[in-house]
């Protein structure tokens, strides 16, 4: 689900908490098995705090709102962020 920061307008890929937790575990397991040389290319292990704010202005993920059609230019890179609780609830209702 695409979400937009209500402070600066930056668009993100909103992910449910369970998905973020799984992605963090998978990355950290991979990272732990790498050589020092490979690890040097990364900032370290992932943490939930990597996903709790806007990539651009650092506003909290709870300030995100659903992105509207046309707010996302083609070909852009979109960073992941936690979904605000009210948007995550929308996904759970669809299941």
What does this entry look like structurally?
- This protein is an alpha+beta fold.
- The chain has one domain (2-94).
- The protein has three helices and four strands, in the order ββααββα.
- It has a four-stranded mixed beta sheet with strand order 3-1-2-4.
- Strand 1 (2-5) and strand 2 (11-15) form a beta hairpin.
- The longest helix has 16 residues, at 17-32.
- It is globular and about 45 Å long.
Helix content: 25-40%
Order of helices and strands: EEHHEEH
Number of domains: 1
Overall SS class:
alpha+beta
Rg? 15 Å
Question: Which helices and strands, and how do they pair?
Answer:
Layout: E1 2-5, E2 11-15, H1 17-32, H2 36-39, E3 64-66, E4 79-82, H3 85-94
Parallel strand pairs: 2-4
Antiparallel strand pairs: 1-2, 1-3
Compact description:
The protein is of the alpha+beta class and 95 residues long.
